[in-house]
Each structure stands twice: as structure tokens, then as C-alpha cells.
Amino acid sequence: MDKIEIRGGSKLEGEVTISGAKNAALPLMAAAILVDGITEFDNIPDLVDIKSIKALLEDLGAVCRGQGATLSIDASAITKLEAEYDLVRKMRASVLVLGPLVARFGSARVSLPGGCAIGARPVDMHLRGLEALGAEITVEHGYIEARAEALVGGEIYFDLPTVTGTENLMMAAVLARGQSVLRNCAREPEVVALAQALNTMGADVSGAGTAVITINGVEKLHPAAVSVIPDRIEAGTFMVAAAATHGDVLVKECRPDHMGGIISKLKQTGCSVEVIPEGVRVCSTGEIQSTDFKTLPYPGFPTDMQAQFMVLMAVARKNSVIHETIFENRFMHVNELQRMGADISISGNYAMIRGVEALSGAPVMASDLRASASLIIAGLIARGTTRINRVYHLDRGYDAIEKKFSALGADIQRI
Ligand code: EPU
Fold first, then answer.
1. pLDDT averaged over the chain?
2. Quick one: 329 and 278 in the same domain?
3. Which residues, in sequence order, are CB contacts of 51 under 8 Å at separation 6+?
4. CATH (domain of 137)
5. Which residues pair with 251 in a beta bridge?
6. pLDDT (tens digit, 9 = 90+) per residue, 283-301?
7. Which domain holds residue 135?
């Protein structure tokens, strides 16, 4: 199994180009199911999660072709309406095929996503939403079965702003008869990107990016070309790494307007964050200042940046408190950071971090995607060598990460 080895101490300097967003590409690829024809994509990142959804779509009968960052999905030959356990268990986002399958074919059988390291992550809101659109749902033998002769527009109220839930229901509602109103929706840029793509395919979706999304159902969608937005979490990860190593990095081809929470927090740590036409330049020279934060749905500070930012706070001047409000078990990186000398204590979903002068390299274990990214940043600033095990988590969501860090001057290699 691959490991990543890092010798800490290098300042990151130079430019890095951000890839397409995993969490935008996955729903967009699922949306291709809605079209009886070919959807063309560009800026698709090279990630294991993308390969997983491709494998799932191919298993349903879609034909996927692509080279580099381009991909075409021909969903005209879909015949199978079942997403099997072996494909879904690899990636929870596979549940995103549920809405489009029911909308276009009137039925679907999708394995319930299994447990997840970062929290329970139920899909109850996805299912209640589909019921509100007239689907009959049963959950049996580990599978969700959804059936509807034809979906009909309805009112959906999300208890919490769920990202993939909003996306699943938006995709279901575009082909429903009549108007659907989705309330308390997630406002993430990935939701907006999906709504825009659906509209390019002929849907009538308005309000994405606000808490209320209105969808007027149309009879069918047509083939279209879709470009994936840049990955704000990949960009944020490089920005935090630049700050932590006291480096000077230009993060190119990103969307600063999608990163308000991250940029504002980074500025509070005392580093310079400059938005320029080419991207965002992060430059850090002085001491890192401590700052408290709380993870929140967009536009709040993203939970997907919590672990990386915690590393920065671990070597900051004073104490800070992080409140994780999205997932109940997203502090698994803490044990590993403690093994590297960080002074962090946990109480429920709060972490108290007392800044230390330096971290020390150690063998560590990655527990999930963003935790892996935090361990890389920790390794970059630690004294000595850090060896990260279980890096397959990293390959799910970061495109060529060690190559990108290496090009910025990090001493990092995959072994
Ligand atoms: N929730 C429910 N019931 C549901 C759906 C969600 O209780 O039916 C709860 C969740 O357990 C959680 C909260 O609602 O406590 C919000 O979860 P959400 O549904 O928004 O998460 P998600 O859609 O499963 C997406 C991203 C995650 C990211 C979260 C939060 C994708 C493919 N995944 O997950 O990304 O952390 O939103 O922003 O978009 C990652 O990339 O590392 C990652 C985990």
C-alpha cells in the first residue's frame, strides 16, 4: 500500500494550479443520467472518487469516454436501474444517482450508503424529499427502492441544509410534473454549479445559492457541455499549507468568491492573502496568530477545511477553539497530530488547541480524506520525517497532490 513520506522544513514557494472540484464533478456526472444523449464535461479532476462514479454509471449502462480532464457520458443506453452495494460502499456520493434515475426512469434501487468515518451521515432527508415528489420509498435488505409512475412537483423542507440532499432533489424535480419548491437548501457553490448545468441542459431552476430553490419541471433535458468549477477545498488546502510553512504561493485557477470563509480566517492568522486576477497569493512571514472558528454550512467556514486549519492553529502563538458543527466524528486527525507533538484536547465537538513551537515528524495514519491533507501539512512543517499511511484516502479527493507540493519545493514522495 502506498505511503507518503515528507521531510519537513521547506517553505512552499511558487505557483499551483487548482483542479476541478470533486464535489461539483460527482453530482454533475450523476446529472448526465437525466439526459437521453451525451453530456460533455471538462475540468474533470483525476481522482479515485471520479473513477468510482464512472464505474457506477457504466454498470448502469452509460458509456463514458474521456481523456485527461475531458469526459463524455452517453446515458442513452442506461438499462439497469440498480446501484449495487459494492459500488456504493466505496463512496457515499453514489447516492446521487437516486434522484436522476427515478426522475428519468420511474424507479431505482440504490444500496444504502454504509457507515462513514466522519459521522453517521444518514440519507433520510433525500428519501423524505423524494416522497414529497410522489415517489414510493421502501428500504429493505440494505437497499433503497424508489418508485413513481411520474414524479410530481412538491414542497420540500430540509431539516438541515444538506449538500447532496439538495442536489439529489434538484435533479429529481427537474423532470417532475409542475413546480417544486425546496426550502432550507444548501447554498454551496457546488449546488449552484449543478443548477447552472441543469439549466444549460434545458431545466428551469432558480434560486440556487439561496435557501429557497424553485424548479419548474420540464418534459426532458437535452445534451449539453458542462465545465467543472475549481475545487475550493483543494485551493484552501494549498493556501493553509503556504501559511503554515511561512511560504509564498500563488494559487491559480481558483474562485476566490467561493472561499470567503477561508480567506477571512487566514487573514486573521496574520498572513497576507491577496486576491489578484491570476488567483490568490498567500504569503506568511511573521508568527501565526491564533483564531477560533466554527464549521458551518456555506458561506460559513467549511468542515472540509477544519482539519487542515487545525494544523495551522497547532503552531500558532496562543490558544484557539474549533467547534465542529457539521459532523459528529470529524476530529480523528487529532490523535495523529498529538503524536506529532500538537497540544490539542477534545470535548464533544470542541477542540482546544494550545499552540506549540514546532511539530515533530512521526509515522501517522490517515483516517479520511481531509484528515490526510492535514497530516501532509503537519508533515511539511514538522522537524524530521513524517510517514503517512493509508494515503488511498488522499487519492479519493486530491489530484496529483504530492506532485503539486513537490513543485512548490516540498520534500515529499510516495513510497
Ligand atoms: N444529514 C442528515 N440526513 C440526511 C443528509 C444529511 O442528517 O439525509 C446530516 C449529515 O449527517 C450532516 C449534515 O446533515 O450532519 C450535513 O451533511 P450533508 O448532507 O450536507 O453532507 P453530504 O452532502 O453527505 C457533502 C460533501 C462532503 C462535505 C459535506 C458538508 C459531497 C460529495 N460531499 O456531503 O464532502 O463535508 O457536504 O459540506 O459533496 C469531502 O469532500 O471530504 C466531504 C466529506
1. 96
2. yes
3. none
4. 3.65.10.10
5. 16, 280
6. 999 999 999 999 999 999 9
7. 22-227
Residues 69, 14 share a domain: no
Mutate to test the pocket of ligand 1, among 170, 326, 392 (most ligand atoms within 8 A of CB): 326
Element (H, E) at 344: strand 343-347
Question: What is 283-327 written as a DSSP string?
Answer: E--SPPPP--EEB-STTSB-GGGHHHHHHHHHTSSSEEEEE--S-
Distance (Å, rounded) from C-alpha 7 to C-alpha 166?
42
Return the closest-CA partner of residue 182 out of 125, 124, 141.
125
Kindly report whether the global pTM for this prediction surpasses the value 0.90.
yes
Residue 309, number of CB atoms within 10 A of its CB = 29
**Strand spans (E) along 25-168:** 38-42, 63-67, 70-74, 82-83, 107-111, 136-140, 143-147, 155-157
Average pLDDT over residues 118-131: 92
The radius of gyration of the chain from alpha carbons, rounded to an integer in Å, stands at 21
The answer for residues whose C-beta is within 8 angstroms of residue 17's C-beta and 6 or more apart is 252, 253, 404
How close is the Cα of 312 to the center of ligand 1, in Å? 24
The residue out of 227, 250, 280 marking a domain boundary is 227
Task: Please say which residue of 184, 210, 227 terminates a domain.
Answer: 227
Range 363-367 average pLDDT: 94
Pocket of ligand 1 (CB under 6 A): 23, 26, 92-93, 119-126, 160, 162-165, 186, 302-304, 326-327, 369-370, 397
H or E element: which one contains 388?
Answer: strand 385-389
Type of residue numbered 246: H
